[in-house]
Every structure is written in C-alpha cells, then in structure tokens.
Amino acid sequence: MSSANSGADARTVDVVIVGAGFAGLHLLYRMRELGLSVQSFEAGGDVGGTWYWNRYPGARCDSPSSSYQYFFSRELLEEWQWSQRFPPQSEALAYLNYVADRFDLRDHIQFDTRVVSAHYDEDRDRWRIETDAGEILVTRFFISAIGVLTEPLVPDLPGQDKARPKFLHTCRWPHGGVDFRGKRVGVIGTGATGIQVIQSIAGEVASLTVFQRTPNYAIPIRNPALDETDWQTRRDQADATHALTHETFSGFEYHLNPQSALDVSDSERRAYLEELWADGSLSFWVGNYHDILASEAANAPVAEFVREKIRARVDDPATAEKLMPDYPYGSRRVPLENGYFEVYNQDNVTLIDVNEDPMQAFTEQGIRTASGEHKFDYIVLATGFDAVTGSYSRIDIRGRDGASLNAKWAQRPLAYLGIQSAGFPNLFMVTGPTAPTTAFCNYPTCGGMQVEWVTDCIRHLTRQGLTRIEPEPAAEVEWADHVDEVANMTLIPATKSWWMGSNVGGKAHSVLGYIGGANEYKRICDEVAAENYKGFETA
Fold first, then answer.
1. Which residue in 312, 343, 351, 472 has a CA-CA distance of 20 to 30 Å to 247?
2. Which of 217, 168, 222 lies closest to 195, judged by CA?
3. What secondary structure does DSSP assign to 213-281, as a single string?
4. CA 317 – CA 232 distance, rounded (Å)
5. What local confidence, expressed as pLDDT, does residue 195 receive?
6. Integer CA distances (angstroms), 60 to 152, 223, 306, in order
7. Which CATH number fits domain 8-47+105-151+386-538: 3.40.50.720, 3.30.420.40, 3.50.50.60, 1.20.1420.30?
8. CA 86 to CA 213: how far, in whole Å?
9. What is the pLDDT confidence band of residue 1, given thresholds at 50, 70 and 90?
10. Which pTM was predicted?
C-alpha cells in the first residue's frame, strides 16, 4: 500500500470508509458491489468494532441473535448458526470475522490506522483524507461508520498518574483477559457494561467495591441455547424477521402494545408485565405499553413493578434502597442482567453511592471518598462514552470554506436524517447524530437501513452523472426540530443520560438519537429518496 505526505502523491479511490464494525463491513460489501474502488480504515487491529474493543468479563449482546445479524446474503443466513439467543462477545466477534473472510473484505481494510483529518476540496469535489501514518488519499465519497459508543470517558479526578492499582477501561480491555482471583477490585459505573462486569467477577475476587452514581433498572435475561432445529426454523423465517424489524418501533421483533398502561385493570396490567418479565428480553422495554415513555402516570406502575422485583432479590433493605432508580422506567438504556442484584448479598461486595459518599481523588493505593480511602489492586472504569458526536470530535473534518464539523456541532448536532450535514458534500454518516442509534434501536436494523439508503443514494448519483450531494440548511434544521419535538413528547429529555449528552461536562444538552421509531424513520428516509432526494442539493 502506498504512503504519501503530499497531495501530489496522494492515492485516489472512489470511497473511503472509516470503521470496520457492523456497519463498516456492510458498507464495504455494498460499495464493492457497486463496482467502486474502496479503502476502509480501522483503528483496531482487526474487524469487529465494539466487539473488538469490548472484551471485558460478561460482555454480551442484548439483541436477540435472530435479528442481530446481516440479511444481505441468503448464503450467510444459511451458513452461520448462533449458539445462544443472546450471543456473548466472543461469538459476535467470531461472526464478524466470518463475514469478513466469507466475502473477502479484509483486503480493502487497513487496520491499526486512524483517520486524523478529512478536508473537502471544493474545486475538485473531492475529500482529502489523512491518516495517523501520514498517508493521504483523495476520494469522492467519505463515509463514517465509526460507531456510537467508541470514545471512552474517564472520571475527572486527580491522582490517576500516581495511583498504583491497574486501571482497566471496559472498552480497552486486554485481549488476554485479566485474572481477578484473590484481588481487591473497584468498579466505577453501573450502566449496562458495569452490570455485566460486576455480576461476572463478583464470585472470584477477594473483594469488590462498586461505586454507583445512578442505579439502573435491569431485566433478568433468559438465554437458552439454540440447536439445529431452532436455527432451521429461524432460517425459514429470516425474510419475515427482517421485514418485521423494519415495521417495529425498536427494530427488534417486538411490537409495542397499542393499549395504554392506564386503560387496563391493575390485575390485567400485572399479568401482562409478568408475561413480559418472564420473556427475559428487552421486550419489557420496547414491547411494553406504548405510552410508558410518554406519560408519567403510565410509567409509574411499570417502574414500581421493576423496583419490587429488585427489592425481592436484595437481602439488606438499606442496600436495596440504594439500588432503587428514581427516574422513569426506560428513560435510560435498560440492560439485561444475570444475577446482578444477588451480587450485593455477598459478603465480599460493597456498594458505595457516590451521591452520599463522593469520590474525591485517586490515591497511591486506590480511591479516596469523603468517608475515607479504599484500597485496590484493580480499578475497572465502566464509565461510558462521549457518545455519537464524540467519535467525530477526534477527527479534523472540514467542509466547504474550511468550516469545521466539530465547531458546527458545538451547540447542536445538525445532520439531516442523521446521514449528512450541510456544508459537507459527499460526507455520509451511519448512525450519526439525530439518526436512530443503539440507544433506541437494534443496531443492525437501523444501521442497516442507513447503509442501504447511502448505497442507493450513491448508485443514484453515479447513474445520473452527479458529482455531489448535501442537505439544504433549512432541511437539516427542520429535521433537528422534528427530532427535538418527538423527544420532548417523551420523558427522556428530563432524565440525565448519555442519550442527552448529560454524562459529558460542557457537552450541549441535546437528544443525540431519533426517538420516533425505526419504522417511522425508514418511512421518512424512503419518502425522501422517492421524492428525488427531497431536502438535498445535488450537482
């Protein structure tokens, strides 16, 4: 592969893709199918995206394997067989490696390489891409598939440089694993990742101290093994499953209940919630009564139902009370768990509510809170991400007249359909800001919708002899207003979460993903394309 330090020596391709995770591989497959020359760059050492980076104990997919897959190849659907309803990290990673090998995608991917800048050349209608190795490429189409949750956050506490315990961020986990047997471990964070780590290592550590800022609602997972009979049935139903995921609010196989939680008797509602609970999936969140995210009154009995379930599993009433969420159910990402709450019944586990006992600093021996010092051998940072826009902020992206994308998004992330931003021609984004994200949608469904839309758009441009496309400024503002309007019809903006950028100091408080439903999003995108890419300017 050639390398260059000047524009004169730059290599030219039709398409540059950033990222080789679920969306990146799908894009690469489609761009190559269009007959375009394509180069993908991946910061990791191999394919896999989130499953390459997140190798922490207990990492597992909470989307059912029947919909957490590609549908673009009948051969792939016939060949691959998942072992479980909810596959572990190792199997999800193996699947993406199989896809890369099955379709000979690796030859188009340069690993261990970050794109550091992308500048648009107006005179040539081309993007100039530079990597951290100093290589320069010139491309017509620049497509980002860098993911929603890729840039890790660490606690803003002094003393980390002097602390002796080994720090482990869940999304930068050592590939060889970590032996926690007999060790003193502190875990900061109790989101979906923290829950998976905590329940997985509590039985092997000498002591485990959990630092919790926000307690979580969580649903006990039901994860049966799958045999050949199960998978033959799933293969036979694959087309119907794919169609169904495009028709539901969440992109899963779960329809929202059209009834209101308030229009049924207490006993009828209780029986329905017990039925959803027994399913052991996210259907309790995105297959529940349709109004639980829109009405506090409808949400209240569902939230209390979950709190009752938590209380019943924790022996100490004071500890159980610390684990009680006080915000509406479902207004933050709802994880699946497997014995998480029982962990707090173990003698070697301590729960610290940092709202009552704030963390003050990392020390040479561990962590100091207001009540004193806690000594550790390992400190696990399950502290989340600078979501959605954070990944873009690490790249110097400049469009027309040298305008910075990061500067444009400082106050409000503007991206029409979450796919393109005005002033940045031929820059496409998959699961960009204001598109449905992993927060509100099964990633393969919504990411796949956007990959197919981008593919169809580029095919259209090529056939029509057009050189560029970008949104009209008014269209992206109208879309952003619609995204906000839909969000404000729910309980979500009032709850602090990464969905709203609340976990990052100084970040604009704005909903980062479309909450109108995967089905409605697809309808809108299809309508825009059918109306000759309404809201876009082409030339």
1. 472
2. 217
3. SS----EE----B--HHHHHHHHHTHHHHHHHHTTSSSSSS-PPBSS-TTSS-HHHHHHHHHHHHHHTS
4. 47
5. 98
6. 18, 11, 22
7. 3.50.50.60
8. 28
9. very low
10. 0.95
Q: pLDDT of 51-99, one tens digit each?
A: 999 999 999 999 999 999 999 999 999 999 999 999 999 999 999 999 9
Write out pLDDT tens, residues 209-241: 999 999 999 999 999 999 999 999 999 999 999
What's 333's DSSP letter?
P
Tell which residue, 387, 390, 364, 365, has the closest CA to residue 375: 365
- Residue pointed to by tokens 């007999």: 182
Distance (Å, whole) CA 34 – CA 490: 40
* Helix (H), strand (E), coil (C) string for 460-519: HHHHHCCCCEEECHHHHHHHHHHHHHHHCCCCCCCCCCHHHCCCCCCCCCCCCCCCCCHH
Closest by CA position to 340, among listed 300, 382, 377, 368: 382
DSSP H stretches of helix in 40-155: 50-53, 74-79, 89-102
CA distance 274 to 41: 46
Q: Which residues make Cβ contacts (< 8 Å) with residue 388, sequence separation at least 6?
A: 148, 413, 431, 432, 433, 437, 512, 513
CA dist., res. 147 & res. 388, Å (int):
7
Whether the per-residue pLDDT at 8 is higher than 60: the answer is: no
Query: Residue 446's closest CA among 516, 371, 367, 498?
Result: 516
| H helical segments located in 287-366 | 296-311, 317-322
Between the alpha carbon of residue 453 and those of residues 236, 307, 467, 525, the distances in Å are 26, 41, 17, 8
CA distances to 181, 274, 281, 396, 500 from 523, rounded to whole Å, are 52, 33, 26, 33, 25
Q: Are 425 and 125 in contact (CB under 8 A)?
A: yes
Which of 180, 188, 195, 198 minimizes the C-alpha distance to 154?
A: 188
Q: Which two tokens stand for residue 258?
A: 């059209």
Distance CA 267, CA 275 (A): 12
Q: Which two structure tokens, joined as six digits, stand for 371?
A: 């009540």
288 is written with which tokens? 């529940």
The C-alpha atoms of residue 73 and residue 487 are separated, in whole angstroms, by 35
For 318-376, what is each residue's pLDDT tens digit?
Answer: 999 999 999 999 999 999 999 999 999 999 999 999 999 999 999 999 999 999 999 99
Task: At 233, list the tokens.
Answer: 């049935």
Please tell me the distance from the alpha carbon of residue 366 to that of residue 184, in angstroms, as a whole number.
Answer: 10
Counts for the chain of helices (H) and strands (E), in that order = 16, 20
Alpha-carbon gap, residue 293 to 299, rounded angstroms = 7
Maximal CA-CA distance, the chain: 74
Identity (one letter) of the amino acid at 145? A
For residue 284 the two structure tokens come to: 């309790």
- Give the number of other Cβ atoms within 10 Å of residue 431's Cβ: 28
